[in-house]
Amino acid sequence: MVEAENESIGMVLEIKYSESDDMEGACKEALKQIKEKGYEDRLVEDGMEMIFRYGIACQRKKCKVAVLI
User: Cα–Cα 20 to 30 A to 43, which of 7, 8, 18, 49?
Assistant: First the structure.
């Protein structure tokens, strides 16, 4: 989790290693985990008004990023 102190902006990053070529599915799984585990709850409690949620999938030298605002 990252907070920009002078702004009301926070972000949560969840990184998954994808064993298969389904990078999109791994990104979706990462975003789902952020929601299900309540990773953003502390940011909300700290007064963050805008939270960026990043689901990142990596496989060898490839990477895919999905964002949910």
Answer: 18
CB-CB neighbours of 16 under 10 Å: 20
CA distances from 28 to 13, 15, 16, 32, 55 (A): 12, 11, 10, 6, 7
Establish how many alpha carbons lie within 13 A of residue 43's alpha carbon, considering only the half-sphere containing its beta carbon.
Answer: 23
For the whole model, what pTM was predicted?
Answer: 0.84
Q: Give residue 34's Cα distance to chain centre.
A: 6
Closest CA to 11 of 51, 49, 66: 51
Give, in degrees to the nearest 5, the angle at Cα 12 between 7 and 16: 155
Delimit the domains of the chain by residue range: 2-68
